[in-house]
Structure prediction request, 607 residues.
Amino acid sequence: MTLSARIVVQRPSFRLDLDLTVGRGEVVTLLGPNGAGKTTALRALAGLTPLTEGWIDLDGDRIERRPAERRPIGVVFQDYLLFPHLSALDNVAFGPRCHGASKAEARLKARELLDRMGLSEFSSVRPRRLSGGQAQRVALARALAVEPRLLLLDEPLAALDAHTRLEIRSELRRRLTGFDGATVLVTHDPLDAMVLADRLVVIENGTVVQEGSPAEIARRPRTDYVARLVGLNLYRGEGDGDRVRVGDLAFTTEEHVTGPAFVAFPPRAVALYRARPDGSPRNLWEGRIDGIERHGDNIRVHIDGPVAVAADVTPAAVAELDLTPGREIWVAVKATETHAYPA
Amino acid sequence: MKLSRGRVPWLLVVPAVVGMAFLVLPLAGLLIRAPWSTLPQRLSEPQVLEALRLSLVTASIATVVCLVLGVPLAWLLARTDFPGRRLLRALVTVPLVLPPVVGGVALLLVLGRRGLVGQWLESAFGFSLPFTTAGVVVAEAFVAMPFLVIAVEGALRAADLRYEEAAATLGASRFTVFRRVTLPLVAPGVLAGAVLCWARALGEFGATITFAGNFPGRTQTMPLAVYLALETEPEAAIVLSLVLLAVSVVILVGLRDRWLGAAA
Prediction:
């Protein structure tokens, strides 16, 4: 295990308290809504925010009492924070210089890193003349130039526009795979998190609410926040064999669960009917349309009732069923797409 | 005029015009009464040149002294927190509002031959500051340094601290952060402060004449020469004043984007 930490930061109206372990070469992503404490956790690891309690163990060294400049870390900041008065090359050479390399050595190393990032021709350019994607690569090169054992990235894709983001995201994934230390990345974007992480740690209100591989978390969310991120309807109920009771409803599910359980299904597994359908399918109830919005090529309909549910239907269906807010509607969910798992 | 609609507010306009005349007319008078025909000749008089040279040299050295001591002081005030910091900040700015003559008297009491520190300087090194060129530098630096400290402190407070954090994560010690990141980022503020400081030092009169006296070639700077010449040779005083006016205008033009631009 490379990084093992317990991070507690107490603020007047907020407490961050999380345990974090990251293996060699592993990329762990802290995912959470704004204000959840992700960036505070990252700053604590970097030594920029003091710990109230806890420890940070990196390869057997306790580093929590060392100031930032004496920790073997590299940080890629949100907005990158490249020094505006230095060229790209001197930005990257800054770290090695501080670690005692001669000017020539530091520049040689910086040049190699910029070459690897495909930025050879930009070495003499000032940061303000770099594009967002280029600036991000310079920032990554600058962080890697000090040969850190722990790489920290704070919203590394947030400053990019949607178009370049796609390209830079997969490129960043490739570069992070090449790094053999521990990596902790912070993001509030579920897609960034899914693509970049080996393991996800979801934080809400300063504590870990769920942890696991991206696939695991996408399939079995455990909080409303995560369910919304991965686009699933999620309910907590009481399992009883192949049924999970949620309030007055009983969902028939694929899996058998007994005791406290979650039920999750995608909005596309929900079908809507003007009148009670014949043959009375299971998982059927009546609700009232609360709102309608565009969602990709489909229309997402929010329905209130015994439980609130989101359904994805085609624009044609909206016209055909005359779906308008306030209308009473029958909701049916396919049992084959309804997953249940212990809470 | 934008105020064309409605009655002209004479109660405001009249004092405004009088105020403007009050500020501009004396300068105009200086230009009108200047002995333009004999100007080149006057300017090349050894006494004028000497005063000019002495002023430029002492003001420049005083500015360097202010930079060396004032920039770290500004950093201390802007970046650290210690008990009494606000009091220290207030004390540092006292020379801004203190009558310079009082500053000169205070300097004499501390650095004079029988002063608290001066006594010791004299006995230990056989070295005394009052009535020497070095004394001029001390008097000018005392009066001018607050201008530099205030300007640099303002620039430091406005600077983005996150760059300093980024430098720390790259392994930079606090001094390296200051030298390689903070200082370059606030360089425009330091430059503006230095120019202001230099201009203040160049025009210094009260503290200089009190602490350093008025010896031609040694402590007689331009403002002192102007004052002295006014009694014996009014034309020379006008010429010297013109030189100082020209310097002020050049500084104002050089810094106009920084100050006037912001206000406009």
